[in-house]
């Protein structure tokens, strides 16, 4: 059920009774880590819940208040309807009073469907489709001329004027430009009583069993009548024309028998010169999700999966027999290899030579096909369809496995038929003010708003009459998107490419448009991905929602949002078990005067320190030249390596286009042979200066309850091995597999180790309920009897990371990975927490911890996308320490960030802008934070200058390792950079690494030995 649906019905009923209640009162909330808290939240105000990550903000906002609102809404259904839906469990709270209908706007509610776009979810595109269906003018895709439609009387009158006194043949077109033998069609025409037809311009008599060449393209018209048109014989002409229109599906062709000149007429839209006719437009003519409008080549996706020479043979130094043609693999005794062998033999080439040494013509014939006939006709002709054709057939196979196998070797490219506009060519030739609907969908919202602004002046009186109300709706919805700072998006932008904050702000804009009153809105960090400049717009949008007469609760860490709130609730004091209490609640002014951690950071009593002396780096650079993808304007990006680098700029300025869509795919292809193609660029220098690239984004670590931090980081493999090595497990003959909840043996078979049962809800999201057999423990009784330090495998999964660090202190292989999770500020999550319950920022930090737990090489480039998502000021300080530690080992860290707390501690900033969308795409400033703060261009400078003016400057901090250096390391130690590199050369990177203390001792022993 969508929250929008859930709130719509009861609003009218409940508004009158709740509007006088001044507070939402929560009594005895104990959900997750909440410690029996009671709270009064003022209604019809903007309320911010803040506090350390994992303190219980979401547990109170979403798992208590929203869950109770949903449950109450479900109870308004009839008993019959509830029997299909199942009951929603009551949250662990004594009671909640003064609760309005609740609408939740979370980060993870967007669709993963490639057909879901900004235009479809805001409904702007739906209104544009209606506008085009009713007011657009059609043009021929062949001649570009305006299409016309005529009534039956107009057609008859036109024929009388232009063919009067001439020998004329009235024809009904039934086949236009299509292949086939049409045996059945000719038989059908004969049965209707017609004797002749015109086939490919030639009049012929119809005979039994008649057919044409099935492989050639044909035009077929039925001869309806032969006559000499005259005013006196108008009735006969009119009857023949109507008969032809009936058989020709609204189109008639009139032929001058003497000159062979033809003229098309149509009841529908038609190009009189070529006879091309369009169906009358309907809204689905412009829908890329409908067969009536979608491009037939890409099926409305705008992109096609293509097999290219490089994608199927990425390494030309391999021979075909050694797997040079990647999808076919190494040589086997199968049909396709025997065909390839025979073909190469004809070209005097071999399977065993590298592909690069095969003659160009032989390679072309092998890929695209070859046909050789015996000139004397004694032998069968040799025909080989080509490897490309063979693989394309597999791509259309009925078997999902076969299709998945081939798709591994395809590349995505813009559809050549529709040029990425997603619609068929007829739909793209309906124009309004000389623009087709695809061009509007590719404009950014700001550009679209300008086009729609005074459109009436450019339309005819009739068009204006039809379009007036539609244009009002379109302008209103576009205005809401501009108000929440999303003017840089375009309507065809796929929803799956949006950040959590962007998708929330789109839903926020939609909600403002619904104009509901008396509703409680709960939002989860809507400021994610938003530059400080646009924060004011977002805050104003939330205040507008409040001023309509709604209550707005926002879970947020952003300074501006906290200070702009009417009421702030600070939850803490710590994370996980150390949180779950109300630390302070009141106006921002009252909160600032309290001594809480949040108040200290807001009032600058505490802050993240900034190094006076920036790192020099290693003197080497990575240079990307001529990046022109999306809105980038021939950008040259220089990244000085061995530094903490930060890319900033307003939303939509081109940061993601430059880093995620251009730089990362280039590096990923170079180091790991990845398939994804980068956006256009000229060249890249300095690839030899790094040895690998790691991108840590915010995509989920798993989409089912089976995925969790323990399995993702790989620590669960070590924990299972530990349990399998226990004496009890050995006596029982249990292997590590016994302690896996993904395979049969030790798991609970009722829920197949998920701990939850999935209840399918058909038209609603699936609901997960605890398994009735194992009560959520995942394992059977026998497995749970094996214990380590008194804890079963389930107890370990239920431990917080913080507890696990103490519990496994003597298990170095396990400790290293868990310690890293703790260092990135995830001490409050449990090892077995379901991936579906992690926020985008938490998922990103799990990935970051996974990478940090591996041994770095000292020459790695880490790319992070807004790592501060979901982080409190104190957690940002922890993250800053972790990232600085990576850089101090010689690595380079590149982050895309809007949060000034992290931007200010960077060594080198690259600011992109100055605006979003078409007005962005250039580097406006670069250098140290202090240098960028003085830049006269771009919006980052002003906010950075303010931030630096209140920051604490320190000398470069000395990073303290977890264990003191051994005596061996302390004596005669070389420079840190060299030490790291030397050591890494001797110690290959391992998936399972030893903890820092053991690593140091090992290095010390090696030096002694040397």
UniProtKB/TrEMBL annotation:
Compositional bias, Acidic residues, is annotated for 960-971
Keywords on record:
ATP-binding, Cytoplasm, DNA damage, DNA excision, DNA repair, DNA-binding, Excision nuclease, Metal-binding, Nucleotide-binding, Repeat, Zinc, Zinc-finger
Ranges for the ABC transporter domain? 617-945
Keyword Kinase annotated = no
User: Example GO biological process term?
Assistant: nucleotide-excision repair
Alphabetically, the GO molecular function entries are: ATP binding; ATP hydrolysis activity; DNA binding; nuclease activity; zinc ion binding
Q: Which residues form the signal peptide?
A: none
Annotated GO CC locations? cytoplasm; excinuclease repair complex
What compartments host this protein?
A: Cytoplasm
Positions of region (Disordered): 959-1010
PROSITE patterns attached to this UniProt entry: ABC_TRANSPORTER_1 (PS00211), ABC_TRANSPORTER_2 (PS50893)
Query: Which InterPro entries would you find in this protein's record?
Result: ABC_transporter-like_ATP-bd, ABC_transporter-like_CS, ATP_grasp_subdomain_1, P-loop_NTPase, UvrA, UvrA_DNA-bd, UvrA_inter
> Where does it mainly reside?
cytoplasm
Similarity-based family: Belongs to the ABC transporter superfamily. UvrA family.
Q: What is this protein called?
A: UvrABC system protein A
